[in-house]
Records
---
Amino acid sequence: MIFIHKRKEPRELTEFKNHPFSNYNNIPSKVKSAILEKLIEEQHELCAYCTCHIPEEDAKRRGQHPVTIEHLYPQSPCGEDVRDCWDLRYSNMLAVCSGNRGCGAHKNFTCDARKGNSIIRLSPFDYHCISHIHYRNNGDIYADEEELNRELNEILNLNCKARSLAANRKKVLDDIKKTLPQDSRFKKSCRRMLEILQENPLPFCGMAVEWLKRKSF
């Protein structure tokens, strides 16, 4: 998970919300497409949770949705109806991957497929939350706060071995390390690579970003 800078909602959504009785269940497909396009653009084509590339070609071949709109705060969490407050808020919307829905085993679901209507504190819009996220040498993601760590591992399942998420994070970092000079230019090169990833993040680059921050100073 990496920080996402939210932008202004698309014009199509603003206009739709001005209609009486508008809600997410009756949103026109063209409005939903405009929302999804804007979300994918602001997230640099990365899933908001696992940071794989979206839309997913593998999911498309499996007949699954290669990218969907997720509500960070659920439309109907735990039986409580809050749709009027949250379903059309662009600030509450994310673009996410298929969550491995095509695998057939719920234990291997990730991201929103695993999260369902659970309410979580973890938010890619909240830099404070992101600052609590770290990575082990093998690529496993964890948080230094117990509840956030539970959300990463149990609710979002972001160390899912079936999807090789940890291995993918480690590979990105290992590949970046190979490009860095091992001399007096090292710190400067780390800072430059960090700037590049912050402006144009790669899939699974969260571990690399944290490592580069440590090595840059």
---
Amino acid sequence: MNNRKSPIYSQSFLGALDELEKIIEYKFRDRDYLCNALTHSSFANECKAQKKQVSSNERLEFLGDSVLSIVVSGYIFNSLTYEQEGDLTKIRAFAVCEDALYQFASGISLGDYLALGKGEEKTDGRHRKSILADATEAIIGAIYLDSGLSLDAVKGLVRKIALPRIEEILDTIKRGGSKNYKGALQQLVQNSKGDILEYVYVSESGPDHNKSFTMRVMLNSNEIGVGVGKSKQEAEQAAAKEALKLFGENV
């Protein structure tokens, strides 16, 4: 790759790598992998036009997607011992979907560390959902290669991405919930490319020992369901259930 030694990257970009390594809790032996994972195709194309050689993160994204899937598959297989194959597939899709990757990336301000082309900079590419999700998968792929193809090396990062959603599903099951409405809604929405699904906090009421939360689910900034529950997660499930009814699903 020869990315790290190249003068292509700015000093500010290279200088921020230490900070990012601390955030993801992985120290690269070969920083070229990390540079490559953070390089968007728009930056690589601009460099190519200037006769400079640099690779985009698209190949690492492909690898990271597969590594993410296998690590999460192993985790839910061992955690959900009574679920059937179809249910496990839906749970995995919910745990590793673009929204899960985007939420993680946003939480660590990953966009600040990316190498983007000027066009993407102007159109707020550092906050674009697809770019952040793809870069997260690329980082997983980079760690996997840098560690000598070790799945154990990526487990820490993968758990940060997927575990909150898996625990949400496990909590639903423990409370006797017969269906993961958020997962079902996410799967339904994923059939339409470009749609953005998000859950928005509305309000809470009641004493500390008996709180009630209200959450709203939005599709492309339009409200499609509102739910109330004893926790934000429960309220989100209720909102997703209402949204599924709107789509004509039998829930």
---
Amino acid sequence: MNKQKDFISKRRLCLIISACIMVVGLAMTLIFGVEMDVTFKGGTLLKYSYTGDMNASDLSSFFTAQIGESATAELSQSGDIQLINVYSTAVVESDQQVEIDKAFAEKYPDNEISLVNSNSITSKVGSLFFVKCLVATALACLFLVLFIALRFSKIGGWTAGLAAVAALAHDLLIVFFTFVIFRIPLNDNFVAVMLTILGYSLNDTIVIFDRIRENRSVLGAKANVNDVVNLSLNQSFNRTMNTSITTGIVVLTLVVVAFAWNLDSIISFALPMLFGVASGFYSSVFLCSPLWAAWTNRRLAKKEAK
């Protein structure tokens, strides 16, 4: 028979590790700041494909003159396609866009310039969109608390819901810190990863709470809470770990391919997703259930004291 792992005894160490990660992440955020994509902060992003050789400094000067405000051009590559990414805080209207494209093609006739993508958003619209995304994420967390509280009412629904949300908040912060540390601008992929991790992490948590509910029913209400949680975690550990490993392998493959082909749009999704998957496993096993056990023990102790 396999030796049972004692997860509860390691809860303080796990909380300390998570607290250290949070402190480092917040420090990095304060030091480096948060980069926002055009989608959220407004402005114009132009993307062109080209052939031959180009100079980023010359392109920045050209687009600054054409747009009438400061513009920055960066050269990148996606597979075999060479790209120019131009960003400006100014909003470029469609008529002005046509003139810029025409002047660009005339200035560099030998480079086969072609417009790949054009995105222009006012700062007000971008900020409003960002706020709506945050509200959507907050509402998702709220509904998850209600769902867990109702589903696991037999094991103290609200304590289970709050423990799950604490773990989810931990995972969302890990995703956010990944964007900050790797200097990935917050864009629509940021929201997509956040919502995906919410569902992924919650799935692991529900599996473990189901085990806890079943074991409390079998062992009785007087069974030691820590023993019930340890038993439940040991029963579900291999399943949770194998699910995270297989998901992580798929996401890691996406990351490797994206870096190999310089696919920025995939990197900005897959890399934070990889850290989110790892965090989801860690929080579900080492944070959520031990937190629930601690709160439940405290509640029972107060009840006995009365």
---
Amino acid sequence: MKERPLVAKLVSDIRLPRMFKVRQKFSREHINKEEIPDIIFKLLSEEKFASRIKPGMSIAITAGSRGIANVALITKSIADFVKSRGASPFVVPAMGSHGGATAEGQREILTGYGITEEYIGCPIVSSMEVVKIGVNDEGGDVFIDKHAAEAGGIIVSCRIKPHTSFRGPYESGIMKMMAIGLGKQHGAEVCHSQGYRNMAKNIPFFGRCILKNAPVLFAVPVIENAFDETHGIYAVAAEDVETEEPKLLKEAFSLMPRILVDSCDVLVVDQIGKNFSGTGMDPNVTGTFISPYVTGGIKSQRVVVLDLSEESHGNAIGIGCATVTTKRLSAKIDYSKMYPNVITSTTIEEARVPMTMESDEDAIRLAVKTCSEIDKANPRIVRIPNSLHIEHIMLSEAYLEEARANDRLEIESAPEYMKFNEEGDLF
């Protein structure tokens, strides 16, 4: 038998508890996928929006790096409407420095979401070239994608949701998509340069300048429910963005999922990735905030991250928010994809690789062993698949009575020990 590493031996005295599955109950109201094209066509057929698209116009449609539900179909539906008005649409990656801050990397991200020229039915123009379009209220230069700036019009397609590092009336949404997404690496770096303390101020400063000086026609934002499903699709005219986006953000906050126990000793996250959150795992769920300007999520002593999603293309941003990880995950990291992201955002802490263990089992044992002032014979462990899909989660036996008393938790299985293969990884 292969000799176990010394570090693994040092945690071998920890006996992991039995776990049981629960279903967390959240509102499931959503839009069926087949309804999306008709909804978008009906929204944009209103004179307020349709009249802005003239025959022969070149129209840029933004597409970001987030794993938005139905994003390819939404993008295609917008493009189809533009074509129905006699105009010529093209898709512009609007994702700041993501994709390794390269045109090829950003196109690759869109391909992973099904946004291809063949499916959307129009060109994808991916470039990192930007042009200055004006100055903001503080006199700072504002840049956006060159091709979008030169188009006859821009349609901002995006998702509105709470941000992971700051709070304000505009978080992840229309204003940020313009200021940071369309700004590409250069614009994103400028916007981030004053840190997250000033982000709530800078996002609208940059966004207002773009609305004033770039050919933005309107936005088509979506809001999702707790199950990563399309809950609402909206059309917002350029002149209404400043007043309407904060209202939509409040709605998005009300639909956010969360872990329905307040604290744990150890949080185990099966996967992190850019398709789950811009920060790999959404701290609004996991409580793993790098920024001191926002709070929320579950409270834990230790966070174990086991794997990285394929959709993340090696960008393991957020790994620095964990206290323990695995060699399986660390072997998947592409630093050329991760480092440009954190350099641009200035949150380099998110790229620090934590203590790394050979297997899932040893990683979880290490986390339990190094917790202080807990019952190590009966630790409180929460396990989630990722920070986006948390309807079904695992709780350790210490939560059994609490789960039985919570009418928003449905117990789905009897407690049983976690099953590991010969290498010590979870089945």
